[in-house]
Write a structure and sequence with these properties.
The structure holds 2 protein chains of 2 kinds. Chain A is of the alpha+beta class. Chain A has 3 domains: 7-55, Uridine Diphospho-n-acetylenolpyruvylglucosamine Reductase, domain 2, CATH 3.30.43; 65-174, Uridine Diphospho-n-acetylenolpyruvylglucosamine Reductase, domain 3, CATH 3.30.465.10; 182-283, Enolase-like, domain 1 (2-Layer Sandwich). Chain A is 31% helix and 23% strand. Chain A has helices at 14-21, 39-44, 80-85, 87-92, 94-100, 106-111, 114-120, 127-133, 239-252, 263-283; strands at 7-10, 30-33, 52-55, 65-68, 71-75, 137-142, 145-150, 155-157, 160-161, 168-174, 182-188, 199-205, 211-216, 223-224. Chain A has a 5-stranded antiparallel β-sheet with strand order 4-5-10-6-7. In chain A, strand 13 (211-216) and strand 14 form a beta hairpin. The longest helix of chain A is centred in the last third of the chain and has 21 residues, at 263-283. Chain B is 34% helix and 16% strand. Chain B has 5 helices and 5 strands; from the N terminus they run E-E-H-E-E-E-H-H-H-H. Chain B has helices at 24-31, 87-95, 104-117, 123-129, 140-155, and strands at residues 3-9, 12-18, 50-53, 56-59, 72-74. A 5-stranded mixed β-sheet of chain B has the order 2-1-5-3-4, with helices on both faces. Classes of the chains: A alpha+beta, B alpha+beta. Chains A and B meet through strand 1, helix 2 and helix 6 of A and strand 4 of B.
Chain lengths: 288, 157
């Protein structure tokens, strides 16, 4: 398959990236490329036809993971493989390491970046529901400076994010999680393990019983499940509470349909997996 | 042709004229006429175009050619030395881990990195690491055996 022609601009700083993106109003469509695992196949299938590709590859300061007081900052260019193997992430946000280690297959994980995954705006993303459950903040730079977007405001529509055409996502910040929180990410792929999740469910329960559940692959965007993100009466939910929360979550979602599953099937998978995740979290030994 | 890139392929310095819209796969096959790296799906799913860039596994069909400028690329042609297959290639031959052979270059490059990182992988670890490489002959059982044999050969008697 041959790529359509485009101009390739390699930048070394965020300022150059913003310059190369232009004002977003001209007829000249400029797109950011990082690992290339999304933009390149979309261009081959003629789903995108940018005039300019702006490469982040040699921009300084966009890679790597930093930890300070339990708070984690991940550069947008950090690869899924790097995030999944990072000691800092494994310690402070193990659920994110787990989810990044389940994206596609190992070679794609070593090419594709976390920032690219988020900016694609795919509902069936592994890290996106995890970052929703962890209450992440996203740093976005543009011609008017830098702004911070709470992850709940980031996914605005089907394959649409809050990042404007003249902006670039630079960092993902994960706030310190309370000690003794319990967490898990579960991915269900009916066909093959390297597929996108039909449902990807992330859950955290804090020591005070406050739960935060988020789901990908169900609604047109990854979403927090408000009805399931409740304060349990105590950290050990009863079977009845689990079933009630699972029913409420299934009623809350607004699933899309595709070849992998109907709306009804996706809704039922929400009921099943919310129940499984909450039951699994009851069994989790808190290790510190 | 709209630019010239310098890169190293299998230890040899190359100077190639390319188009910006070429992928690394195009650079190898069209620019250098190195036909060992195969194009399967062309969209990163099947793994037959897998090569190493600066020691990292990449799908050459998704890796823009301009990005290879100044990099060190290893393809399947770089595995043999002085006309002799390397131990990994021999393990695939001996165990019958090859049917039509189209996917073999990608499996070899991926397995090379697997065994460098994890010299004695479990069966589950092999299956996981190779999960992005498709063999449409369905020869997975013998490919698995070949990888296990290569790991044993590497570990020595």
């Amino acid at each position: 398959m041959i790529l359509p022609p485009f101009e390739y601009v390699e930048c070394t700083s965020i300022e150059e990236v913003i310059d190369a993106l232009g004002d977003g109003d001209s007829d000249r469509d400029a797109r950011i490329v990082a690992g290339g695992t999304v933009v390149v196949p979309m261009m081959k299938h003629d789903l995108l036809r940018p005039d300019v590709l702006v490469s982040l590859e040699r921009v300084a300061g966009l890679e790597g993971v930093e930890q300070s007081n339990g708070e984690i900052t991940i550069g947008a260019l950090a690869r899924h493989r790097e995030v999944s193997r990072s000691e800092s992430v494994r310690e402070a946000a193990p659920m994110l390491a787990q989810a990044c280690g389940l994206v596609a297959s190992p070679v794609i994980r070593s090419m594709g970046s976390l920032g690219g995954n988020l900016c694609y705006g795919e509902s069936a993303s592994d890290p996106s529901p995890v970052l929703l459950a962890l209450n992440a903040r996203l740093h976005v730079s543009g011609p008017n400076g830098t702004r911070t977007v709470p992850i709940e405001d980031f996914f605005v529509g089907f394959y649409e994010t809050a990042v404007g055409p003249e902006e670039v996502l630079t960092h993902v910040e994960i706030p310190r999680q309370p000690r003794e929180s319990r967490w898990t990410y579960r991915k269900w792929t009916p066909r093959a393990r390297e597929d996108k999740p039909l449902i990807g469910l992330a859950a955290t329960i804090r020591p005070d019983g406050a739960a935060r559940l988020a789901v990908g692959g169900i609604n047109p965007t990854p979403v927090l499940l408000g009805s399931a993100s409740v304060r349990a009466s105590d950290s050990d939910l009863s079977e009845r509470e689990v079933n009630d929360i699972a029913d409420a979550a299934a009623a809350e979602v607004d699933p899309f349909e595709d070849l992998q599953g109907s709306e009804e099937y996706r809704r039922e998978m929400v009921r099943v997996w919310v129940g499984r995740v909450l039951r699994a979290l009851r069994e989790v030994e808190v290790d510190r | 042709m709209n630019r010239t890139i310098d890169l190293t392929v299998n230890g040899r310095h190359e100077n190639v004229e390319i188009h910006d819209n070429w992928t690394l796969l195009d650079v190898l096959r069209s620019g250098l006429t190195m036909l060992g790296t195969e194009e399967g799906c062309g969209e990163g799913s099947c793994g037959s175009c897998t090569v190493l860039v600066d020691g990292r596994l990449v799908r050459s069909c998704l890796f823009l050619g301009v990005r290879a400028s100044g990099r060190d690329v290893l393809t399947v042609e770089g595995l043999s030395k002085d006309g002799e297959l390397d131990a990994l290639q021999n393990a695939f031959v001996d165990e019958g881990g090859i049917q039509c052979g189209f996917c073999t270059p990608g499996f070899l490059m991926t397995t090379k990195v697997l065994l460098e990182e994890n010299p004695s992988p479990t069966e589950e670890e092999i299956r996981e690491f190779l999960s992005g490489n498709f063999c449409r002959c369905g020869g997975y059982t013998l490919i698995l055996k070949a990888v296990q044999a290569a790991a044993l050969a590497k570990a020595g008697p």
